[in-house]
Amino acid sequence: MTGARMMIALGAALLLLPTASMMHAQREVSLQPAAPAGWPRWVASWTAALEAPYGSETLPAGALKGMTLRETVHLSLGGNRLQVRLSNLFGEASLVLRNVTVAVPTSARPDGSIVPASWKPVLFGGQPGVTIAPGQEVAGDPLNYNVRPGADLVISLDVTSAPDKQTLHAGARATEFLLAGDHADEASLPGATTNTRWYFLSGVDVEERTAAPVVVAFGDSITDGHGATTDGNDRWTDDLFRRLQAASPTNSVAVVNEGIGGNCVLQVCVGPPATERFQRDVLDVPGAKTVIVLEGINDLGALSRKEPQAAAVHAALVQQMEAAFTKFVADAHAHGIRALGGTLTPWMGSEYYHPDAQAEADRMALNTWIRTSGTFDGVIDFDAAVRDPQRPDHMLPAYDSGDHLHPGPAGYQKMADALNLNLLTGTEPGDIRR
């Protein structure tokens, strides 16, 4: 997108976003609504932000027809009953599944095998298969199944036919196994091929008998976990959940990850823009009570990655992102959800964006606004957590994955540690000062 086209798009979208006074009026809503009658209820224990295939993620036509997909997800909350949500959001033809099962893996590092005694079928209206129309999502029948907090769950799909345009999450960082034929109920999959995507999985909910709140991490590749360990569950969101589990006031809080690598706030980069997916990926998440917004570095980097832009174009972009974040907060408050803002982490030296002084000034301006505008209910200073004190526009080498844009596992742990847990319990509203 050229600078001129971006300015036109930004200006048009700005007309749709609320003013600061409108947003502050929304802040009068209760962020801790009373639990409704009729507990128990379903709350999200795991989610995936969905996208259409792109580039190297695009499979040949018919590639998944007649295949068994065995996929592992890492839950947050545990429970005695669960339901699996499946999606054909981006499909242009029906997704037909003959068999869907859940099981416990035999080891912490997936090898395609399951504990046979743990195997159970997922039914849909009492039947062992389902057809999901294009653009639709379905939930399996509630299943009596005991899972502990932080457990892995294996979900196997026997695919009769699938649309050529699959619905997936590309950055699973979890090994998926694929084998021709119906093997959903088999203990192992010898000869299976592997990749690191999740296909057709939207979420796993557990039935909760208390008002268990869900924290939704909403962002791009840094939330998605680029630089984390495959099958290691060491994204900052995983580290945050483990930290919450260790503290009695927060050990019933779930953390779900709605990050998409390469995602942008305002324009189509990878996956739907944040402004388009906020409803589905935050407001519609079962049990959501807090959203952590950490996104925008791709918008800033894409602006001048190919050619320099005028200062006015940079200023317009920052203003539009502030307006988008303001609307996120207003929409969250309208749904009884607390909104926390995360500052954008350092990126100088990035081998992908090669940010110049103006792009870095944009990041600093946006971070200053996040910290000081009072728009968010609280601020998590991820920037301060991982930056190099000697070169604050760079990430500290110990926290850097090596590309100078994404943290590695040590950096993700530092990000998880940056959250003041009082912001999740309602005892300390406003900005945090650690």
Automatic annotation (TrEMBL):
Residues 217-413 form the SGNH hydrolase-type esterase domain. Residues 1-25 form the signal peptide. Gene3D superfamilies: SGNH hydrolase. Keywords: Hydrolase, Signal. GO terms for molecular function: hydrolase activity. SUPFAM superfamilies: SGNH hydrolase. InterPro entries: GDSL_Rv0518-like, SGNH_hydro, SGNH_hydro_sf. The keyword Cell division does not apply. This is SGNH/GDSL hydrolase family protein. It comes from Terriglobus aquaticus.
